[in-house]
């Protein structure tokens, strides 16, 4: 298979590219800067930005499947900073896939597309999109996901004479990806803990889903392999996780322990954290900052509420199973990082 991975030099994108290469697929990496490690691993490096339609069109030529992973994440900044890459960029990818005759499009989404700031327990894919947005990132990802899934429905309406050229799509929603080479979640936790700025939000009893990065990457390959005409995967969205929620603050304390840091012992109520988040958001907006503030309403809600998901649909439709357990993943994280972050 000839595969294109957008954002292949990001955390998840790199693992997807490496797993594709390891099983013998040909990989083209659409990235904004050269990546020697990917190139030496056998990937074709294609420089470009998903907001540049011409570059995306060129990258999709002679490709069978596109793994669209590239996105802007974050908690601050104006709407356009998220709309352009996440929505407009996804529109470019869909159009390029159609123009180049790409057969499959696997989109990396987020469970936050269904998150409105309240508890989510055993949520499955029947959950609607959020009716209010606490941040631009989940809003933009929801708009992008809807377009990806609609592209499959539009392809399904193609006459049978042209069905062979239809674009098949699906969307995957991995929750809290972590593991070796993470440059965001774990380093930020460690940095804030070292500065004494980490606070438990809420009562500390909330359960959340997480997913080890290799499991998330493997799920993308499995979904791609199952994405065939008539498959139940076509036009569908899927939650992904380890299959068993963890206590949010207990898991954070496990990560801190790997770095020989004490557990979080100070706390804020959810209401207080949410108010602080609203103030920070206003201040960042007035100051024109695009960096993430120390607290936002979205972050407070994520850290204080239950949010875990039913992954039965992924298990049924493309045989997803988290092969790397939570315990083994933590061991791999500890061994790989060697904690220069301390």
What does this structure look like?
This protein has a 7-stranded parallel β-sheet with strand order 3-2-1-4-5-7-12, with helices on both faces. Strands 6-15 form a two-stranded parallel sheet. It has 342 residues and is an alpha/beta fold. The chain has 12 helices and 15 strands. It has a domain of 225 residues: Rossmann fold (3-Layer(aba) Sandwich). Helix 3 runs parallel beside helix 4. Helix 4 links the parallel strand 4 and strand 5.
- Kindly state the number of beta strands: 15
- Total helical elements: 12
Indicate the proportion of strand residues: 15-25%
Using only CA atoms, what is the Rg?
20 Å
Question: Topology, pairings included?
Answer:
Blueprint (H helix, E strand, L loop, with lengths): L1 E5 L4 H12 L3 E6 L4 H5 L3 E4 L5 H7 L5 E4 L10 H22 L3 E5 L11 E4 L12 H21 L11 E7 L2 E2 L6 H10 L5 E2 L5 E2 L2 E2 H14 L9 E5 L5 E2 H11 L8 E2 L1 H18 L9 H8 L2 E3 L2 H7 L7 H12 L5
Helix pairs in contact: 1-7, 3-4, 4-5, 9-10
Short synopsis of the structure:
The protein has 342 residues and is of the alpha/beta class. It is built from twelve helices and 15 strands.
What structural keywords apply?
342 residues; alpha/beta; Rossmann fold; seven-stranded parallel β-sheet
